[in-house]
């Protein structure tokens, strides 16, 4: 048998004559022996189980497979396994070496989110690991993804407002030169909806669907959803009651017997404030004011 040759196969995406292909590249050993290579392509059919889809015998240090949307589709995780053997004595073989799995399709980073009802924006990156082909007679090399959210859990339809808000309803993935990670990318922000209700932690998902594509590869493909867990934060409370006794958000207590219009509360982070109007409601013996009007923005 040939000793271990350190072929180190790696899969990269490539456009060949306008069609998406995957290329398996491996190191050609410096041995003087005339070598040939057997490249076996496989995909993950179920977790932990691989299905063989193509076998090549070649003199080259690379092998291609076409993503045709039938035996190799978007959403597949693909592997290539390479074995070298000498042309004169085919029974002399190296040990087979397998590449890392290559996920072909749309990816979200991060793949899941844990956010809180604190108004913060969280960046979600959408990327395609394969190049985007231009339709014929069309220069717009892009995939448009329609985004939607869905609340999960019991009685999600009865719980009021949605859990999360997106900064965009659709994003365009424009073709770019393929890097190690992606061939097209876009970003959006996700924010938890502050609902002022103690309804526990809630789970939603973000769904993306390619729209307006006629080719088989993209038309039959729905990317994997992103799971978003929203942590419930207790809402703050402040009070102004009776003649007015005031309790602030952090529990301070005092009285305000004055007559007039006062600023009760103003947020330093967003457009939110509450004004109160106090009129004289006491008798001759005591000066007392009562809330008689409120304005909130």
From TrEMBL:
The domain of life is Eukaryota
Keywords, alphabetical: Disulfide bond, Signal
InterPro entries membership: Dev_Signal_Modulators (IPR050969), Ig_VWDE (IPR057885), VWF_type-D (IPR001846)
CC per GO annotation: cell surface; extracellular region
Q: Please report a single Pfam family linked to this protein.
A: Ig_VWDE
Where does the VWFD domain lie? Answer: 236-297
Q: Name one GO molecular function term.
A: signaling receptor binding
PANTHER family assigned to the protein according to its UniProt record, in alphabetical order: EGF-LIKE-DOMAIN, MULTIPLE 7, 8 (PTHR14949), VON WILLEBRAND FACTOR D AND EGF DOMAIN-CONTAINING PROTEIN (PTHR14949:SF52)
Protein name per Swiss-Prot or TrEMBL: VWDE protein
Organism source for this protein? Mesembrinibis cayennensis
């Amino acid at each position: 048998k040939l000793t271990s040759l350190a072929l180190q196969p790696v899969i990269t995406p490539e456009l060949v004559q306008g069609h998406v292909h995957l290329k398996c590249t491996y190191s050609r050993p410096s041995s003087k022996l005339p070598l040939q290579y057997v490249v076996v392509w496989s995909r993950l059919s179920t977790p932990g189980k691989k299905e063989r889809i193509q076998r090549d015998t070649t003199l080259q240090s690379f092998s291609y497979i076409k993503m045709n949307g039938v035996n190799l589709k978007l959403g597949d995780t693909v592997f290539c396994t390479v074995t070298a053997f000498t042309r004169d004595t085919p029974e002399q073989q190296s040990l087979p070496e397998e590449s890392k799995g290559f996920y072909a399709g749309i990816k979200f980073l991060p793949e899941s989110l844990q956010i809180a009802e604190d108004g913060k924006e969280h960046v979600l990156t959408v990327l395609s690991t394969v190049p985007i082909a231009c339709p014929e007679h069309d220069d717009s090399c892009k995939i448009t993804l329609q985004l939607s959210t869905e609340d999960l859990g019991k009685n999600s339809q009865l719980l009021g407002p949605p859990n999360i808000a997106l900064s965009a309803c659709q994003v365009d993935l424009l073709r770019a030169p393929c890097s190690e990670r992606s061939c097209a990318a876009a970003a959006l922000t996700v924010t938890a909806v502050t609902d002022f209700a103690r309804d526990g932690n809630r789970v939603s998902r973000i769904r993306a669907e390619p729209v307006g594509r006629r080719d088989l590869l993209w038309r039959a493909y729905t990317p994997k959803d992103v799971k978003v867990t929203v942590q419930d934060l207790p809402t703050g409370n402040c009070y102004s009651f009776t003649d007015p006794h005031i309790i602030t958000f952090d529990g301070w207590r005092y009285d305000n017997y004055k007559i007039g219009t006062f600023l009760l509360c103003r947020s330093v982070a967003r457009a939110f404030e509450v004004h109160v109007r106090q009129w004289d409601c006491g008798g001759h013996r005591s000066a007392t004011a009562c809330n008689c009007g409120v304005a909130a923005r």
